[in-house]
Write a structure and sequence with these properties.
With about 100 residues, the protein is α+β, with helices and mostly antiparallel strands. The chain has helices spanning about 5-15, 30-40, 45-50, 55-60, and strands at about 65-70, 75-80, 80-85. A 3-stranded antiparallel sheet has the order 1-2-3. The radius of gyration is 14 Å and the shape is globular.
Length: about 100
């Protein structure tokens, strides 16, 4: 099973890859919208998950970190899984990330 949740994949496609999910019917769930977006991008959800979390970063998930940051995104980690993605310029939530030394 992938350490990237479906919700995190959805947010990555939206916030980093720029997919406009308002084009999806409201009756579609996240999984169906992800499939639609991947088809538009001519890729697969597996490839996008690997793009957002390369194998070299997976080892950090078990160490108890709560975020993985790069120049344009922050992967939010809970219990060893990426649960959401914050895009460039997005503010942290009220919850403090302490495992990586804070913000």
């Amino acid at each position: 099973m992938s350490p990237v949740t479906e919700h995190a994949l959805y947010r990555y496609l939206e916030r980093v890859r720029g997919v406009d999910f308002t084009a999806c019917p409201e009756s579609w769930n996240e999984a169906r919208c992800i499939g639609w977006a991947c088809a538009m991008l001519r890729t697969s959800d597996v490839e996008v998950r690997r793009e957002m979390l390369p194998v070299r970063l997976e080892r950090w998930l078990a160490s108890g970190i709560t975020a993985i940051r790069s120049a344009d995104r922050t992967l939010v980690v809970e219990q060893g899984a990426v649960v959401t993605v914050l895009g460039r310029g997005m503010k942290k939530s009220a919850r403090a990330f302490v495992a990586d030394g804070g913000w």
